[in-house]
């Protein structure tokens, strides 16, 4: 009889322990989740965001604008709506890089132009109009360099060259590497 | 062929390079150039632009291979060389270094051969220097086929 009672008591104590563990485990999960959601609130936001980078001669090197910018804590960085980056050139017209959304990395060194991206340079004395279509472009302003793993196509006058994967070096002179499946069409 | 004159030049390759200032596009790795009925296979092709139009293509390879289909019923013209310069505007192909051109059993070999795609005229050798010797093989037509 006494042994029976001990068994029951031990079984009840075991159930109590498991349920206490379960309660603690569940509350940890919730707090983590709430922490993350709390992090995704913007630290600050800006409408008609504009950032100009000057060179050592006090001239504008590049200008980054966006309809809306929201900066977040941690490693999220600054999210941009309709970002446009203008890279000024000494002689030729500037290069203009546009996309629908983008973001600046937390350390400010990389700009991600997400989705379809358009890179354009107007025609001028001695230079041809150039239009580049690609997507998901990573821009490294400090190195005057941008790259993508996606398909990219450059159109200039009657010439068209496309490929998969692109490296764009946009200091003077500009040059572009296309990494695979390259197709060129030259009319005259 | 007649219709080749204003056809666009299409190029395929493993990788490409565009230099905005020089107006040069460079294609490397299994490069195939096609214009109308002409095809060229090379390791590297550099497209030079001038006033926004193609001035010339310079192809290099081990060797560069060239094939052209002349009028209907005629045999294809083939060519090999280490370097080939092609001028789309005038349809002139200049083959340099170990150049050979052949059509059927007739062949011409020299260090420099010019092939005019429009008139289908082959000019071999270089009047400027004696060392561009020319080696021509013209197979006699079979007696039977003549009667």
From TrEMBL, chain A:
Record GO cellular component, one term: plasma membrane
Entry GO MF terms: glycolipid transfer activity; lipopolysaccharide transmembrane transporter activity
Pfam families from the UniProt entry: LptC
Annotated Gene3D superfamilies: Lipopolysaccharide (LPS) transport protein A like domain
Range of residues in the leader sequence: 1-26
Database matches in InterPro entries: LipoPS_assembly_LptC-rel, LPS_export_LptC, LptC
Keywords annotated in UniProt: Cell inner membrane, Cell membrane, Membrane, Signal, Transmembrane, Transmembrane helix
The protein's name: LPS export ABC transporter periplasmic protein LptC
Organism (species): Methyloprofundus sedimenti
